[in-house]
From TrEMBL:
Protein's GO biological process: defense response
Coiled-coil regions listed: 36-63
Annotated keywords: Coiled coil, Plant defense
Pfam families: NB-ARC
A Gene Ontology molecular function term of the record: ADP binding
UniProt protein name: NB-ARC domain-containing protein
Ligase among keywords: no
Entry keyword Zinc-finger: no
NB-ARC domain boundaries: 159-314
Amino acid sequence: MGNCCSIQIGVKNFLLRGWVFIVGHANYVCKLKQTLPTLSAALQELRAQRNDVQREVDVAEQRLLKPLEQVQLWLSKAETMITKAEKLIEDGPQQMNNLCLGTCASKNFLSSYKFGKSVTKMLQEINDHVSKGAFKKVAESRPSASVVVRPEERPIGLESTIEKVWSCIVDKDVGIIGLYGLGGVGKTTLLTQINNKFSTTPDKFDVVIWAPVSKDYNVAKIQDKIGGNIGFSDAFWKSKSVDEKAVDIYGVLRNKRFVVLLDNLWERVDLNKVGIPKPSQENGSKLIFTARSLEVCGEMEARKRIKVECLEPEIYI
């Protein structure tokens, strides 16, 4: 008798669990009339929020700020969800036609069940994603390296020239300094010493930028070197045109006290094309370059032109 009761209870529990399972799955089908319009409304809200966040990001990028990674990830996920939700809504009418006179019965119950479950799941995901899209800020200032210390050689006999250059740097009336001389006299060594001295001298400049030029200089390459020092280093930025890069560089440097060191000029470099604001007493910035000829110093409008010469042999003794 006891065994018989136990079997009956077991069967009842089994049937009850089975009924709960069936009802739970049938709900995905029964509620399609409610969940599909709700999904459509949620999709509309997600699109609007996506557009708002993207607009904020666009404005931030115009101000040369860097979008936060979590914001970019949110936008990427939003795009994926929008695409999936649009497909579900597109398939909605066909799935509704499978239902028999608005009941929970379906011509293809398995298909209707899977579809209804996908709609419910997508609705929950969109609601969760929308709740995460209220960002206090979408971007931050791009990091910049104040001074990158470069490997250096011992500046034999250049000490006095270094001091002469440094006195020009601290002179408020001097914005552009040209160092000229024959090849091999130590111009690059001198410029390296100046660069590294900024790292040990508590001074007034926000960023010090080193950019090698060359005989056949390329504006885009100079821009990429400068960009790497002020937070522009990703593939998207490097793919921009020279004019676009110039606007970005100018937008950052115009708000900073900068030092730009250009090594090995063979001809005039157009600062406007690169995006370098012209140093002046007002902005307090400096441009220091090396060149082979005094003529280039003139073309670059150097306020101070310092000749770098080889030392006489007896000075080394």
